[in-house]
């Protein structure tokens, strides 16, 4: 596993990558050709600078520890990036082969001519929520008028969501709300409790991490406008898709098997996470962290599996409908990330998903139930 590389980039850099690709750059890293054991090697860009109980645990760590990558004759190396824009840049430049990046970042790159393509969904249920203190006077979205909203950063997905949420409530985004960067965790909680902000705009897993300390939030409802908008989505370059179709299919299959395993036994998945990423323990024993970390991982898993039904009924892993893509494009356009519609054939190729779904779900579930 490789974790030494950390990439950060502004959205403007993406425009230059289109020219790089046109000149023959942007190819997959040389390690993707395989190793002496005959395994194909893929470099995975995680779209965050800090390892946490989320996609890197539920897909990568479990895929590695439970043998799903080895069964597929894959060796997967990991790099961290400073977010989805940087992760897409890593893929476009050839520093990584695949990333589960935010769909908005993929769309923004595609609009700028960067030849990246989505090949499989991951987070399917909208993960962003507005939260206030239980005794807050804010009861409805319209009550946000004149309020300060805490976002992770002004360039983050939470800022985009906050503006879209206010606009959906009929507010003037430029005049009726103020966005203030507060980060996540204790920093975000302090900003809310001290009155620096009136409301937080974070993702569900971030709230769970805070709630594990005993804090309570009251959540505002998301309107139907946010249903069906996609978030984290696996993306590669067109070149990588063409040259490494089989390896990518096997990677997706292993990742979806790992996600199913995680949904059945999140505690076992979290223990796999500790083995892959010891830094998650922050110097503590696994038994001292496992309870809270499992709750945090479960919050993320709920965004990535069907909202209803049991694991035995989960199917069509990675599928994204045209309607969902259209809503995602419209949201990304309204939020200002893109200025025009991106044609679906340029954006999406679901051709690997039949092969990616070709696994025995019952066997995965049985293994997960037996795991400790």
Walkthrough of the structure:
This protein is α/β, with parallel strands linked by helices and 372 residues long. It has helices spanning 13-22, 55-65, 68-71, 84-93, 103-111, 157-168, 185-193, 204-211, 238-243, 245-264, 266-276, 286-304, 322-334, 344-347, 353-356, 361-370; strands at 6-7, 40-46, 74-81, 99-102, 116-121, 128-132, 147-151, 177-181, 199-203, 218-220, 232-237. The strands form three sheets. The protein has a five-stranded mixed sheet with strand order 8-7-9-6-10, with helices on both faces. The chain has a three-stranded parallel sheet with strand order 1-3-2. A three-stranded antiparallel sheet has the order 4-11-5. Helix 1 runs parallel beside helix 4 and helix 8 runs antiparallel to helix 12 (286-304). It is globular and about 60 Å long. The model is unreliable at 1-12 and 19-32 (pLDDT under 50).
What gross morphology would you assign?
globular
Count of beta strands: 11
Compute the average pLDDT: 91
Number of helices: 16
Spans of at least 5 consecutive residues whose pLDDT stays below 50 are 1-12, 19-32
- Residue share in helix: 40-55%
Oligomer: single chain
Share of β-strand residues: 15-25%
Q: Any idea what the radius of gyration is?
A: 20 Å
* SSE-based structural type: alpha/beta
Sheet with the most strands: spatial strand order: 8-7-9-6-10
Order of helices and strands: EHEHHEHEHEEEHEHEHEEHHHHHHHH
Largest sheet: 5 strands, mixed
How far apart the termini lie comes to 24 Å
């Amino acid at each position: 596993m490789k974790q030494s590389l950390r990439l950060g980039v502004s959205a403007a850099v993406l425009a230059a990558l289109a020219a790089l690709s046109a000149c023959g750059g942007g190819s997959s890293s040389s390690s993707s050709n395989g190793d002496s054991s005959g395994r194909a090697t893929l470099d995975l860009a995680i779209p965050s600078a800090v390892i946490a109980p989320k996609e890197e645990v539920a897909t990568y760590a479990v895929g590695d520890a439970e043998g799903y990558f080895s069964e597929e004759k894959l060796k997967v190396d990991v790099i961290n990036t400073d977010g989805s824009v940087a992760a897409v840049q890593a893929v476009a430049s050839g520093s990584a082969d695949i990333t589960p990046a935010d769909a908005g970042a993929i769309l923004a790159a595609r609009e700028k001519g960067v030849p990246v393509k989505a090949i499989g969904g991951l987070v399917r249920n909208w993960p962003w929520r507005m939260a206030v203190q239980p005794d807050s006077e804010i009861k409805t979205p319209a009550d946000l008028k004149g309020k300060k909203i805490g976002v992770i950063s002004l360039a983050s997905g939470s800022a985009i969501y906050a503006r879209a949420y206010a606009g959906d409530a009929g507010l003037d985004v430029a005049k009726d709300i103020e966005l203030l960067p507060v980060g996540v965790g204790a920093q975000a909680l302090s900003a809310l409790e001290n009155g620096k902000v009136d409301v937080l705009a974070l993702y569900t897993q971030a709230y769970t991490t805070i709630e594990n300390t005993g804090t309570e939030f009251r959540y505002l409802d998301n309107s139907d406008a946010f249903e069906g908008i996609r978030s984290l989505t696996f993306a590669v370059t067109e070149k990588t898709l063409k040259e490494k179709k089989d390896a990518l299919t096997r990677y997706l299959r292993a990742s979806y098997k790992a996600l199913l395993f995680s949904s059945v036994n999140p505690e076992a998945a979290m223990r796999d996470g500790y083995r892959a990423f010891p830094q998650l323990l922050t110097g503590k024993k696994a038994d001292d962290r496992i309870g809270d970390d499992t709750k945090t991982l479960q919050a993320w898993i709920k965004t990535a599996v069907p909202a209803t039904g049991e694991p035995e009924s989960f199917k069509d892993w990675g599928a994204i409908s045209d309607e969902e893509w259209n809503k995602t494009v419209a949201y990304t356009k309204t939020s200002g990330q893109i200025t025009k519609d991106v044609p679906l054939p340029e954006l999406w190729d679901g051709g690997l998903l039949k092969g990616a779904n070709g696994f025995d779900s019952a066997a995965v579930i049985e293994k997960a139930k037996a795991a400790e």
